Amino acid sequence: IPSAAFTQPPPLRFEHLSDAYGLSHNRVWAITQDKYGLIWIGTNDGLNRFDGYEMDVFRNEPGNKNSLPDNFIRCLFTDSRGEVWIGTANGLAHYDSRTNSFHSFFPDSTDENSLPGNNISAIKEDAYGILWIGTNSGLCSFDKKNKRFQRFLDDDRSNTISNNFIRDIEFAPDGSMWISTGRGLNRLDLSTMRFT
Questions:
Q1: Which of 9-18, 41-50, 89-98, 180-189 has the weakest average pLDDT?
Q2: Which strands form 84-88's sheet, in the order they lie side by side?
Q3: Closest by alpha carbon to 168, among 159, 160, 176, 177?
């Protein structure tokens, strides 16, 4: 038997990125990688983009509608086109790599086709390219082509989600979506749009 068959793998080596290396804050909530291989890091105080050597920091700039809606980054998601979506404590943002800026989305109580809440907890994408966003005030889908939201709220009727406080979203191999809430786990059959 060759001696290589008994060799040990090299020990794991961890590298640490902190505010000493340019990270905007040491409390990290989310991480994703975009289509260019850049690592995006969401923290308590800003969004960081790391290319392996340098850190770029993005923050809310009051009065600039093309900046982040908030500095508290709760979740990050890279969609099927490799584009980055940012869930903050005050709205949803999409990063535009052509202009190095952000387009933000907020709740509007007069528009049922807007986000149901501003505190974003989860962002995922289904097999049809539709984004699903969990908030502190309900679940919604987002058609990226038409820039249109559809809300799914708990309203004590049958076939609704069990609670509006959305914690996480995952997709099963059968195409159904699982949603964890403040009051249990929900399954949404995307072919019939029925909750179970």
A1: 9-18
A2: 73-78, 84-88, 91-96, 101-105
A3: 177
